[in-house]
Amino acid sequence: MRQLGTVAAAMVLAGAAVVGSAGAAGAATGQAGKAPSAPVCSTPWGSGTEALTGTSFETLKNIRTGQHACYDRMVFDITGATGKIGYHVSYVNAFHQDGTGTQIPVKGGAILQIFVNAPSYDPETGSVVYPGRGAQPLPGVNITGYRTFKDTKFGASFEGQTQVGLGVRAKLPFRVLQSGDKLIVDVAHTW
User: Is the dihedral of CA 130, 133, 147, 183 positive or negative?
Assistant: First the structure.
């Protein structure tokens, strides 16, 4: 009787191994006749103003962008920031340079204005750290082929804040996150 139980257990394990390897093979090759599924984009974000008063006062080192399946991303590198990074992000009808009020044209169906509490210059020496120039595209940022981002413009770095205009395809939901010393703005591809 004991031998019969051992044989039955071995058969169950062998069957599980066959089923498991068949599932792995199907997953690795993609099952024939089925197209790969598109990513499910759950973006329960909104399009209202997002703001946070921060405690970190470091300089902006770089701005970069990236494309993701459900959103386009802009990252503000504020190397050395240890506390909360302050920001104010909102849709605006027109992009006006902070300090002067000069209107800066930004392409796209909507304009997201981003203020980050990090100057693009060293406050002690006044030397430029991030080389953004007013009314010009962000240096080193190429958004050609992006699904949501259509234009970038540097506004100003004034009184400890840096201002950026982000042209997007339409007024779409966005979120603002902080990951270590990086402030992240994601704009969804769809509602």
Answer: positive
Read off the pTM: 0.80
Residues 154-163 as b/e (b if ≥16 CB within 10 A, e otherwise) read bbbbbeebbb
Question: Sorting pLDDT into bands at 50, 70 and 90, what band is 19?
Answer: very low
At 8 the pLDDT is 42
3-state secondary structure of 157: strand
Q: Where are the alpha helices (DSSP H) in the chain?
A: 2-29
User: Collapsing DSSP states into helix, strand and coil, what is residue 58?
Assistant: coil
Which residues sit opposite 89 in a β-bridge?
50, 114
What is the amino acid identity at position 180?
Answer: G
Tokens representing 168 are 């997007």
Task: Return d(Cα 83, Cα 69) in angstroms, integer.
Answer: 30
CB 142 within 8 A of CB 151: no
Element containing residue 66 per DSSP (H, E) = strand 62-67
Mean pLDDT of 159-164: 95
Two tokens at 25? Answer: 């093979």
Q: Please compute Rg for the chain using Cα positions.
A: 25
